[in-house]
Amino acid sequence: MTASDGNPSVNGRAEATESSTLPLDDGDMHVCQDGPLDAPALLLIHGSASSTRSWNPMVPLLTGAHRVIRIDLPGHGRSAEPVDRGYAVPDQARRVGEALDRLGVEHAVVVGHSSGGAVATALAEHRPDLVTALALVNTGPGLGAFIAPQPAAVGPSQWPPSDEQLRHFASTAVSRADYRLPEELLDDVRDMTHHTFTATMSATRSYLEQRALPDRLTVLGKPLLVLFGEDDRRWRSSSASDYRAVPGAKVELLPGLGHSPLLEDPQRTATRLLAFTALHAVRVD
User: What pLDDT, on the 0 to 100 scale, is given for residue 150?
Assistant: First the structure.
C-alpha cells in the first residue's frame, strides 16, 4: 500500500513523501521515502518511543543529495508489533534489512538516533554488504554513559502514560527549556503498547551489556561519524570520545544542543551529516 503525504520543506513548499507498508513475515513495516529514487540511499533510524516523524525537520535538507528512507521500527509509529513479540536488537536490524531488500536498496549510509544507533550498528553486523557507512547521533557507547533517571514505572493497567508523565519523559529529550516537543511525537508514545515500550528499552540495554558499540564498530571497519549534542541530558556527551577507539572515526560535539539535535537544530545536524555522506554514499548505477 502506497500513499503520498506532505512533508514541510525549508522554504515552506510541501514535498511529496511516499508512504508505504511492507508486508514482512513477522509483521508489516511502515516506510517513508523522499527524494530521487536514483540518488544514493540514506536510511534514518529513529530511537525508542519515537517514529519516522522525529526526522521530519531534517528530511527536506537531505533530499537534494539522497533518496531518504525512514522506517518505523517494529511496534513504533505505523509498523506492526512482531508476531513473536520479540524486540532483540539483532532481530530489529534483520527486519530493517528485509525492508530495504523489498525496496531494492543494495547500499545505504545508515543513520541512527539514540537507541536507533544500536539498531544501525546491528544492521551493519548482520548486513555488511548493505551498509556502506554509519552515522550515530547521540547514541551512548555503553551503559556506563547513561545519566538520565529511569522513567517512573507505569504498569500495563496505567498505560498510556498521563500527560504529566509524558512531559517528564520528554523533558530530557532536548536541552532548551523553551523548546516543546511536537505533540505528534508525544502521540507516538501514547500509541505504543506497554509491551513495546518496555521490551525495546530492555533490548537496547541487553545489546549494550553484551558488547559496547565502539568494540562492535572497530571489528566492522565501516566509516563512522558520531554527532553528540554537548548538553545531552540522557547520555554523557563526554562518552562520545569512546568512539575515537574506532579507527578513522570522526567524532563531533554540537555545543548548545541536547539529546535530539535533529529536532533542536536540523540545519546544523544536516550540514555535518551531508559532509560525511558526500564522502561515503554509493550512487546508484
Answer: 61
For the entire predicted model, the pTM comes to: 0.93
What is the DSSP pairing of strand 2-7 with strand 108-113? unpaired
CATH of residue 64's domain is 3.40.50.1820
Query: Looking at residue 18, what is its pLDDT?
Result: 96
- List the domain range (segments joined by +) for residue 254: 2-280
Residue 8 lies in a domain: yes
- pLDDT tens digits, residue range 98-135? 999 999 999 999 999 999 999 999 999 999 999 999 99
> How many domains does one find in the chain?
1
Residue 285 lies in a domain: no
Name 21's Cβ contacts closer than 8 Å, sequence gap at least 6.
1, 28, 29, 30, 31, 78
- How far is residue 139's CA from residue 270's CA, in Å, rounded to a whole number? 17
CB atoms within 10 A of CB 129: 10
